[in-house]
Write a structure and sequence with these properties.
32% strand, single chain, 10-stranded antiparallel beta sheet, 1 helix, alpha+beta
């Protein structure tokens, strides 16, 4: 150690510089160590998150494939019901491409079956009915849905054709009575239903 103040200052400055250098090195090493640990922790967390996501998607895929398989089995089991030779229901409707009902098959208020063909405005233009005693009836209807031509077959199998007026009342009738040796005749009636002419 020297007594020269200048030399003493230079010596102290050198020692201080050396201390600062070692401090910088230690700080750099500590910083690198901290960064390494942070990166390692982040990498571990990222892998954990990725692992959880992988497990989640794997489980979801399994459930999805299982649901798809069940749906496929249900489809294969249900498909034969679509192609059955017999279909049963209380009412059937045939719908056109415009979504409007054009044909209806159902029971009437008395529980007898019938079929109605509708025009594009939903009005009944043709009907087929079977009565409670087995009589059959087909009718052609006008725009007012009243019957203007009737084809009938009573319970005894006797045919009849009626031409009706605009109110739907039978005015001209042609009948074959099988119980009377196939006797046939034509008759005219008034609006009240009274026979005004008959031949033969």
């Amino acid at each position: 150690m020297t007594d020269d103040p200048a030399a003493r200052i230079e010596e102290l400055a050198a020692k201080l510089a050396a201390l600062e250098g070692r401090a910088d090195e230690k700080l750099a090493a500590l910083e690198n160590q901290i960064k390494s640990r942070i990166n390692h922790a982040m990498a571990s967390e990222t892998w954990r998150v990725r692992k959880q996501a992988l497990v989640f998607f794997s489980i979801s895929a399994v459930f999805f494939l299982g649901a798809l398989a069940l749906a496929g089995l249900a489809f294969l089991r249900a498909r034969p019901a679509w192609v059955q030779d017999t279909t049963r229901a209380h009412r059937f409707e045939l719908v056109g491409k415009d979504g409007k009902t054009r044909v209806v098959i159902e029971e009437d208020a008395k529980g007898e079956p019938g079929l109605a063909v509708l025009d594009k405005d939903g009005r009944r233009r043709l009907s087929l009915r079977v009565g409670e005693k087995g009589q059959a009836k087909a009718a052609l209807c006008g725009p007012d849905e009243r019957e203007h031509l009737q084809l009938l077959l009573n319970e005894g199998g006797e045919p009849c054709i009626n031409l009706c007026d605009r109110e739907g009342r039978a005015r001209i009738g042609m009948i074959v009575e099988q119980q009377r040796a196939n006797a046939s005749y034509v008759l005219l009636t008034d609006p009240a239903g009274k026979i005004v002419w008959k031949a033969p």
